[in-house]
Every structure is written in structure tokens, then in C-alpha cells.
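cache lookup: miss for this entity combination. No prior model stored, computing from scratch. Input as submitted by user K.M.:
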Amino acid sequence: MSMFFSTGYVFQLTLPRVERIPVDTFLTFLDVLEDLRGDFLRQVSSLVSSHIHDILWRLDVAQKYIFERMDGEALKKEQLDSPGFIRFCELEN
Amino acid sequence: MRTSLLQETSEVQGPAGISSNGNLSLDESAATSIDLTGREKSSATDGALINVPAIASNDACSEGLGDPMNHRDHIHPTGRQRSDSTELLLDSSKDDAAPLSQCQDINCIEHEVHNGIILFNPTIDQWHDFPSLLQYARSLGADKSGIFKVRLPEEVRPSLSSFPLNMEGHKAICFSSQPQINGTFMIEAEEIDVVPAEDLELCEPCTAALSTDEHVSRYERLLQDEEALRNIYYYVDIDARNVTSRTRLGLPRESPIWPLKGDRLRDTKAHVPGIHSPYAYQSSNSFGAGFAKHMEDYFAISVSYLYIGEKIWCAIAPNDTSRLETMLKATNPSGYESNCSQFLRHAATITPRAVLDSWEISYKIVCQRQYEVVVTLPQVYHQGFSAGFTIAEAANYADKNWNFEGYRDCQERSCPAGFATRQMMCWREANERQLEIEEFDSECCDDEDSSSGETGDSTKVRSLNRRDQGSTKPKPRKEASMPALGAKRKRNSRSHDRAESTKEAIPHHPVLATVLASVAQLGRIPKHIIQPKVLYTSWTKNKNVDVKHSPLLTRLFFSIASPAAFADLRDACFVARQKGETRRPQSTNTVSETIQALDKLDSTSFADTIERRYHYVQLVTKRNELEDHYKNQEPRQKTRRSLKLLDNTAITDGVAKSYEGFGRASSLALADLMAEAYPDLTPPLRHRTATGTQYERRYRSLKSRLGAGRNWHLMKERFSSGILPLVPVGEEYEIQNYEYVLLDRLRLPANTT
């Protein structure tokens, strides 16, 4: 087996990588992701989906998520899967 | 005058069911005030809740007409204005329990006293000044009974948007009871998957005309009827903290009982759901959904609001708390082996009145009606049940004098009340954020998690041991209490353990080192989540995964919805909001400006990337719909369509044109997409004649986009569309070329361990 990949292969991987993962591999990945982080991901995903479309397409920019008001560094200091993120994904009252 | 009245009313015993020793007193409704249609008579409530029908609300307390047993007294009935001194109290939560002499006007709160139970009728301002209301209740002697009621002012009675509540995803419990040697009943609850719809329909209970005493008698008879108990359903401990969860349930966006002014629970180290924030409860329309005898965690106050229906409470007089505990242990020592302050929750118990009477324990029976809040004071044991369909929510409260000195923590991990620990309830520092319970757990208690407590008999829960409508058990972390979650966690734990056992087998490896370094940039990973090194090893061993994808999958796993991803999304939202309002800087004069400009471009790029993902998913969704459409077509239709395609005839029932590859649903779907996207482009007769044409280029582009959207679509299907912007894309997450070298070495750990 060659110790190196072809240039073409490397080039492919510089394209958006998530999109290049084979479907079987990706389904396995999703299974593991769901098993180990599913509860958290479903919660934040549900919250984010409530309004992100309106923001990105500027359909309604009146409402803001709590995380938009937060300092980026403060967000990065939270732990992975911190329940704080669930709160931060709420819309401001 | 007030003092003499209190003396008078506290001596009055209930009109019915008075015990031989006179210990029982009832907050009895005046039967004469019941509207036989089951609707409330009180004009104050008419129309207040359009979408919440009033049922069987024997609002005798508000009417009380001609009831000789109701000793009501409207104190300062006109004094509904708060004075300046009260206003000062409102402005300072720390002064919420100022000496009574400083807040004389608090005494203006209109109230009634029925058999020693106070019912307040506050104004909005008076309700919002809960510390003063509490203080006033105590000054009126509420400490003696340990329980009082507040009828929320009409203006703050919230409406339900769903009736019954939307309990999708939540499990109800049903009951069973076991008579004990000492005359009490041990209650167990079992989770059920589906509650019959007819059991959640609002109907007037046949008990609508019963007095409170008759309700209690009926419930005590019910405890002996195993069959009937099993047909009573109760949704308990449903998180109702935030707007999202509340809206989903159908509760009003804002809780009427939380947050309350002056709540010192806000100052503790951790936030425990159900204690620090409300839980919702919904019982079926069968009579008798109960909650077992308990006191609140850490000597807190309980505050419970009833949206609809009637609940009957039995509160043990605080002076008899020790006596009750002693008698329960003495008469059934094997039932209560724990010595913690929540030992009663180890065996959910309902104690009938006759038993309490025989033990000479004083208690109050209180009927809670629609729009009423029941407040139990610290260390007050209470039990109760719903007299038909009820919707309620409850939380705890701590006033400025709150302390839990003498509270005995349970040493058993399986303690039904063991969720909130002493450390969680301690004061936090002023600059310290109140942690979510999982955060607190992960920081302080991770090591304990591996040794789970109860695991057997996992379908049995003891929700009666939790908060009632009240029982203060937050979402349990013990597997035995919540089978679904428990099973999940155990499964996670097992996979974690399995992976842990192999982590030493990984030799030091440059790719692994790079992966670990890049994952470290994404944010802190708590111990309870699988660690990158372990996950990486798992990927390399997974037969479904090509080993070359292991680094990518590892980083992707930790990057989705990571702290860094949220920071990126924050920036992307900022950029999206500014679109059309600002222009990218054309030139920069300083390094700072240049860096800022570059940062902004990065964010802009990310915002565009997110948009692209949504479009991809939309495209794939549309393609899949078309494919399904064609797959579901009748064979005859397919044949006819194919024949038309062969003839290069326009199809009348679709937008697809003929082209090579007819007959396959995916090809037909693609053709439809092409026709819809590029109506001006004419499809070629044969693909080979299309090479180099604009149609062919667009066709390939479409296929490429569909391919790019496939995984985003899968991800969206799994977690909903909100996951799409939570996958960060940035230079720091790119896999460097050198990571793909020496793959034979990369395979080594997988093949050798």
C-alpha cells in the first residue's frame, strides 16, 4: 500500500468534507452521534430551527437568540453539551 | 381584632368528618355555593380564561354564602393599594422580609380564613410582592397549619394554549397501592406509554357536588381498589422552565408562580429543575391521581398553581412533624430504613385520616381550586390527590430566612430525593454563575456516575415519591426512576466503558495527536462525554467506517454544536442581520482594521455556507419527494409514461421532459428538477448528444449539489434543521494533507488491539 494518497484524493478532501463522507459511513456516524449526544443535539437543534431561517433570510430580525447577545469568548468557555447552551438558544423575551 | 379572629377560626373544626379527637379540620367548601352546572359562580373568574373551561369549582371560599362553618373575614377590603413603604420592599429583594412594623400596609391584603386556612385575594402588586405576602401569612398564623392559599388576581391568571396539555414525548404513570401493617398505603407508580384520549377529555366529574370531606373519604376507599387505581393516569414532573418547553406543552409563556420575588434559590450553586424552576402536572379525568406524603427538599417552600380542576391536600401541622416520623418508623420499621430527611420518599406513603387521628397528629385538609395557589411552608409534610382532571404547575421557593440546618442528606445513591445535593444548594459566590445540574454533576460528581444505583425492575417508578404536585423530585438521574432515559444512559455508559478499556492500546500517533489538538480547540469536553482519543479508536475499529475517515469523524463528532460552533453561529447571525445595511470595507489602514475585516469576511463566509446548506437540504427534499412520487406510481402509469418518453412526447401530468434514463424514479425526479429549475433549457434527446451543452453542465451541477446535500439532509432528518448551522466550517477544522499519510500506520491500532 502506498504511504501517500494521490493528489486528487487530497484535493477532494479539501472540498466540504461533511459532504464527501460516504453515505454508509455517515449513517454510522449519525447513529453514534445520536447515541452519545442525541438528547442535547435534538434540543439545541429544535431551538435553533425555530428562528434561524428568519434571521438568515432576514424575514424577521426582530427577535434574537440569547447567544447573540453573548460574548463569543464566553460561549467558548462553556463545556461541550453544557445545558447552558440550551438556555442560550432561547429567544430573548 | 385580627388576632381574636385568628384565635376564633383556628379553633373551629371542619363541618364534616371531624375526628374523634378533633384533630381534623377542613378547608370546607360551602355546598350551598356550588353551581350545579359545575361552573364557577364567581364573577371574578368569568371569562378570565376563555380556553380553559371551569369545572366543578366549588368556589365556596369566594362565595361562602350562608355557610355557618366558614369563618371569613375580609380584612381591609378596600385596602388594595400598596403604600410607599411596600414599594420600597418591592425594590429590594434582600429586604423582602423587613420587620412587620415597617410594612403595616401589607396587612391590606384581602384574605379570608376558613377553619384555620388562610386564603388571600391579593392585588397584582401584592401577589408580585411574594415575600411580603409570605410574611403576612406567617403573621396571621400560617406557620401553625403549615399551609395557606392564594387566589391569583384575575389579571394574572394565565391562559392555557392547549387543552389538554400536549404531552407528546412524555410518559404518564398509573398507580398501585399496597396496604401496610400500620394502616398506611404504600403507593407505587408505573410508567405507561399511552393514555387513552377519553381519559384526558374534560368532563364534569361525578364528584363535582361532593364536599371536600367526601372527596377524602372516596380517595381513601379508592386506595383499597387496585383495579380502579390502575386506570388513573398522571403526567408528573414535566419540565416547564423555559418558553419553548412551556409553549410546546400548551402552558402560558410565563409561569404564574415562577420566578417569584425574593427567591433565594436563585443564589444557590446549581439550578435543579423542579426545585428552582417549575414542573407541570396533568391528571386524567379519573378521580384520585395522588401524590404521596413528603416534605420539600432542603426545607424549601412549595408553591403550586392549579389551572383547572380541584386538588385536595392534607398538610401535617409542623408541630407534629417529628411525631409523624416517629410513628411511621415505629409502626413499620422495615418500610423506612433510611435515616435521611426524605426517608418517607423511600417508600411512598399515603396516610389515611383515621391513622393520623389514632396517632394524635394534627393536620389540615385543604381544597385547592382553579386559579388558586397552595403554599406549603418548610418542613410541612403533605399528601393529596386530584378530584378529577387537573392541570397544575409547581416549584419551590426560599425566603430570606431559608436554611436547611438539620437537613439530613441521603447516603444512598438510589434515594428518590437524592438528585439535589447539599453542595448544589449552597450559596454561590457573587461572581459565580448558577450552574445547570448537569454542569454541576459533570464538574463535581462525574466519578460517581459510573456506579449506577438501582437498575433492576426498571419499569417501576416511584413518582409518587417525587414532587407531587409537589413532590420535589427533579428529573431523576437514576436509571431506575426513568427507564427510557436510563436505558439510554446505560447504553452510553457501556459504549464508553468499552472504549475506555481500549484507550491504552493506542500508540502515540501523529494523526491522533493532530486530531486531539484540533478537538481541544472546540471547547472543553466534560468527563461524562466520550473522550476524543476513545472515540477515535472506536472509529478505527468500526467495520462500517473506512479508517481514513476516522480523524474527520472524530473532529466532526465534537465540532457539531460545540462551543466554537455556537460562537460561529453568533457571528453568522450578526452578519446576516447586517446584510444590506453595511458594506464590506474596501480598504483598511491599520492591522486592527485588516484583522477585523478578515474576521468579518470569515463570518460572512460562514453565514453564506449555512445558507447553502439549507438550500441543499431543500433541494434534496424536493428530489426525494419526486422520487417517492414516481416510485409510488402504478406500473401501468409508469409504462405509459415510459412510452411517452420514448416518443419524446411532453408529459402532461408533470414537468419532466424525455431524456435518456427514463423509467428510473431518480432520473425522472432529476428531469423534473431540471425542468423546474431551467424551464428555458431543452433537454437533449440522448445524453450522448448533450455533451458540452448548457443543459449537460446544469445537469451535472444539479447532481453535484444533490450529492453535496445528501449528508446535510440526513443530518437534518435525524436532528431537525437547526443542526445545520451548528456544524462549524473553518480553517481550524480542515484536515491537513499530512494527516492522510502513513495510513498503514494509522491502521495499526485497529488491527492490533
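stored under new cache key. Residues 568-727 of chain B form one domain.
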